[in-house]
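Hi there,

I know you've been waiting on this one. I reran it after we fixed the sequence typo, so this is the corrected version. Both the input and the resulting structure follow.
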Amino acid sequence: MVRAAVLPAVNAPLQITEIDLPEPGPGQVRIRLAAAGVCHSDLSLSNGTLRQPVPAVLGHEGAGTVTAVGPGVTSVSPGDRVVLNWAPSCGDCHFCGLAEPWLCANSGLAANTPYATAADGTELYPGLGTAAFAEETVVPARAALPLPDGVPLADAALLGCAVLTGWGAVHHSARVRAGESVAVFGVGGVGLATIQAARIAGAASIVAVDVSPAKEELARAAGATDFVTAGEDTARRIRKLTGGVGTDVAVECVGRADTIRTAWSATRRGGRTTVVGIGGQEQQVTFSALELFYFGRTLSGCVYGNSDPARDLPVLAGHVRSGALDLSQLVTDRIGLDGIPAAFDAMLAGKGGRSLVVF
């Protein structure tokens, strides 16, 4: 039996309880978690914005040590340090064939298959296929990525979602070039990772935007050159900071229609806006046909940073070892499983960066 945070139903309070976790079957790996980040996507799964069969153990941003492997597993061995990949590509679908593993049609299959049982025998589902809000988990082998040396295991949990997403938004989606200006909307865990990625890319200026002025210190520590408290005139103030032109790139990490529209409006003619935040179906963004023609801007969605985790993880580890990427800057609270509900409340209130569950 292992302790876990169980979501019994959509919009129900999490229950910290013991669950029965089986030994890994064919193609599976059992992992003892060192840490798990509390991501806004977990909140979206708990309130029904994102679909997830329940009851479920949430948590998808994690790192730990392999304790056992099932038959046929050769990619990792007991004792290996690994990072969880919540969207492992199958390698066989149409999108994998296009070398776009972040769009894999089969990456979510594990989330729809029970993986453990509650004390009363009820079957439990793994949130986003990984179930990282537990002392241990069992995942498909392709969801366990070997962690390169030189990266602290607990902090490495952040590489599994926030950092891969922010890094990919900058380097793969927006393709920020040295000397360009970047605006980052939302200074949570992903936003802070995005700011660091923009700094590493050589952005000349980085404008951080958030509803909370208390986020300025976090943003500047990550590399922001300017900070704007979000309001009705946000786009105008950003253009003023960039000589009246607007930024070359905007990265939206919130997932709200008004924020997406503001991010788009804050870029220059020909600018590029990448949307990382996950919003609900009711969030509708509108543009006039004339402004689309006149401004010539690009608006694009971004899934998991358009990243290939197997390719990008060693690159990120190199930046961690060099000191260019500081994972600890993303973390504002280190908590236990009991602290997850409070971490959800903090996200809803727009407070802090990443909360990290440390086991």
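Quick highlight: The longest strand covers residues 28-38.

Best,
R. S.
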